[in-house]
Structures are given as C-alpha cells and as structure tokens.
Amino acid sequence: MIAPVTQQGLVVVSIENHAIGSSLAGQQRVVLRTNAFLSERSIPVTWFSRYRSFEDIQVISDTLVDHHEAAILTDNNWCSNQISRKAFSEELSRRCERLNAVGVRVSTVAIDNGLPADSLDILVKQRISLVRDLNDSTSSAVRGLQPYSDESKRYGIWKLPAPYTLTELTQRNVRTVVARRQMVKQLHRGNCVHVNMRLSQLMDAAGWKRAIQLIDQLSQMRDRGRIQISPVNSLCYVARRVVQNSQSHSDIRPAA
Length: 256
Fold this sequence. Notes:
Radius of gyration: 18 Å
Strand content: 15-25%
Largest sheet: 10 strands, mixed
Shape: globular
C-alpha cells in the first residue's frame, strides 16, 4: 500500500449497477433519487454501469459531466482472461466512445474475471488508468492504491483499492466496528479509502436508510475538514503524484 497519499484522508465513493433485480425504469428512478440526495450533500461519486449504452445513468448525464463520474462495469461476455484482445478492444472502444460523445471521459473499468492476455496497451489507448477487481479480497488492513500488476506501473494503470462496502460499514455487529475503526485509522494516516454501494441495495428501504446515514456521516467528516471526498478518477492524479515523488526521491544522491 502507498501511504500517505494526501494531507487529509481521501474517500472515493462508487455505486455499481449490475443490472439485476428490477426493470431499467426502476433502476433509473433510483439513480435519479440517489443523484438528488448526493447533490444536496455535495457528494461526488463514480457510477459503474453494465449497460452497453449506459441507459441507467443517461438520466443524470449532465451531472456526469460536471460533478460525478461514469465508469464501465464489464461482464464475462467481452472481458475476461478467456476473451480475445480484438473482442475486448472493440467493445471497450464502443463503450468509451458513447460516453465521450456526451462529454464524459472514462478513467475506470471494473472486471470480474481478469483481463485478456497482454491487454494493458488497450486500456492505455482508451486512457483507462484504474481497474476495479470485483473479486479483490484484500483485507481491510492493507487496502490502498497499488499498481494493477507488476508490469502495469509503467503503463500508468493502477488498481482501485478494495472497497469498504455499505453492508460492511452499516451492520450492527463486530465486523462493522472493526471495519469502521480500520477505515478511520487509514484516513487519519492520510490514505485513500474506497466506499462502495450497489444500486440494488438502494432499491431496498432498509438499504436506502443505511446509505443515507453513511453518506451523512461522510459529509459531516468532510465539512469538519477531516477528509476529502472525490470520484474515483481523482486517484489518477494521486497516482501521478506518487510516481513523481518516487522518481524525485530516486534522483537524490548522497554528497561526495
């Protein structure tokens, strides 16, 4: 883990829509309601969409340009370690072009079963800098900003920190107490923390209530100057600064 990355702790918030459990119209209604609440609290987030044409988040397209961020949630039909480079490149390009056409630049993809072999250059071509591994089981003690793989650092591609989930942070049990303490400890050290929710959770009354409470708590911490809150793409700038700092340190030589 790289630490510290900021003078204050940095929280990046993401919401994933895996396009299951309800109709598109139902998902759009929850997206609109959530977006309105986040706007009231001035909380920027990253919306991960699995839809090819991003129909679920098109209803908030203006805020994706000015406030929030859109990201691509892949599936195994076009992104896995069993898929050809060509198929992956074509589908990724198609989705990036659709977002670019409405003024939204993409920096992040989420993957479920790895990337096609030797495909880092394809991510670079589409200006993708961050990868979210849906199967990342990194423990809370070591979550942080890291290169996606041994060779990805030279491409400027980083792994999004494994998230603290809505369930993990809002249940009434010992695991939640431990997770919250660990998250606060990381933030006090100036590290980055990733908080993740699923749209399906926000469709449930109990899940919506927990999400509101969590967002309000983060908002209060920010207003007190204890943390910063940003979309996921802010980690691109953090990563560049980390690389620049490491390069400048490597240039220091002891006096003769």
